[in-house]
């Protein structure tokens, strides 16, 4: 089990690192703009949502589990959530199989796979996702129609792409499939099968869709082995500065009483079938540590659906 857990975590990290942001034609300007982009990125607030893999245990079939995952993906896209963290409970931690294995997956592994699949533009899925039993029913889910899911006839300043094995006419470049009738060339040498974000047009300045153009560009999916790792492995500098825990067993509050303070990186954590308390109690790391970050998880509230929606909407307004 220990080897499987380490393999699952390394695969999750590799998949996250497999997506890079590049531009066609003016990569030499990156160093000059790097500091500006970092500073601007630090000013943009983000919202992360943590969901336990055990949330699908009530689903009576693979089809119903897939529908539930599709509803989660749609909600994350509608409310412009930046990061979705799927965490394991102690009871099933380490049961995540290999990325290409067709054996039954843990709830967390299943959700990670489906959420990443749905976030990926349709024209890239075949290249990035091998056939897998867990993907059997994804075809019945409606498309997310996220801003980065551009169709062939639609123009946009940015497009998602995947690097190809074919040799580029430019020895210092790489061919990229961006879902158009012709592939594009980027002036970097990258490994085949890497997902990239391309700024269309050779004379366009290097910029990221959200940081420079204010365009929501989908959510990132992260796997966490337990609820402690949700916070400790935060990808944002300085970590999450505000956390909200939700539970049916917590305090009931009205939507009018919900006040979200100014934040840089907000984390909203949901519990499984037995509530967020079970995830906290089963995490030995959380029990051993005695700092204020755990207390934020312990102060859980019972959120009605409208309250959670308000929290998401408040973040969505920040993007307009």
TrEMBL record:
<dbReference type="Pfam" id="PF02598">
    <property type="entry name" value="Methyltrn_RNA_3"/>
</dbReference>
<protein>
    <submittedName>
        <fullName>Uncharacterized protein</fullName>
    </submittedName>
</protein>
<dbReference type="InterPro" id="IPR029028">
    <property type="entry name" value="Alpha/beta_knot_MTases"/>
</dbReference>
<dbReference type="InterPro" id="IPR012340">
    <property type="entry name" value="NA-bd_OB-fold"/>
</dbReference>
<feature type="region of interest" description="Disordered">
    <location>
        <begin position="1"/>
        <end position="37"/>
    </location>
</feature>
<comment type="similarity">
    <text>Belongs to the class IV-like SAM-binding methyltransferase superfamily.</text>
</comment>
<dbReference type="InterPro" id="IPR003750">
    <property type="entry name" value="Put_MeTrfase-C9orf114-like"/>
</dbReference>
<dbReference type="InterPro" id="IPR029026">
    <property type="entry name" value="tRNA_m1G_MTases_N"/>
</dbReference>
